[in-house]
Amino acid sequence: MPAELGDQWTSCVLDKGESITEAFLSNETLPDPLSLSERAREMLTIDAKPTNPADVLRAHRKVICPVCTIDSSKPFMVEDGPQAEAHRHSRVHRARASRAVRIKKKASQPVSRSATVDRDVPMGALDTEDQQGSVA
Questions:
Q1: Which of 28, 103, 121, 136 could form a disulfide with 23 if both were Cys (CB 3.0 to 4.6 A apart)?
Q2: Residue 38: which region, alpha, beta or left (left: phi > 0; alpha: psi -120 to 50)?
């Protein structure tokens, strides 16, 4: 460790720490923590936060993710901003989005008539069975 760094640490940390400790043990007035150093001022300063409920709600605005909403009565919501961006890059969201694209692509392809009709079952027989089953 270079000598000047040792001297700097001694004057900025050790000497200040000793003087604060001596003042505390002697029941003297302690220095304002914000006056100790620029770094202390940065770390100890608290930004003013809104207390108005409308401002708080605006700061924590939620958005609905249509891809991850499975049940429309229970929408998947995430806080707007960095959290929403992180959600869009999440593994679950990407998987659901790619699944939605595959389903949409599959739905847009024409379905062959032979693939949907069972040739052994007479037309209307399934409808009749479904209606009888729902009545009973």
A1: 28
A2: alpha
CA-CA distance, 132 to 19, in Å (whole number)? 92
Average pLDDT of span 80-92: 93
d(CA 57, CA 51): 10
The single-letter code of the amino acid at 37 is S
φ and ψ at 2, to 5 degrees? -65, 150
Residue 134, helix vs strand vs coil: helix
Distance of CA 58 to the CA centre of its chain: 16
pLDDT in tens, 19-30: 999 999 999 999
Residue 45's CB is within 10 A of a number of other CB atoms, namely 8
SS3 13: helix
Take residue 32 and report the two structure tokens written for it: 């304002």
CA–CA separation, 130 and 124 (whole Å): 10
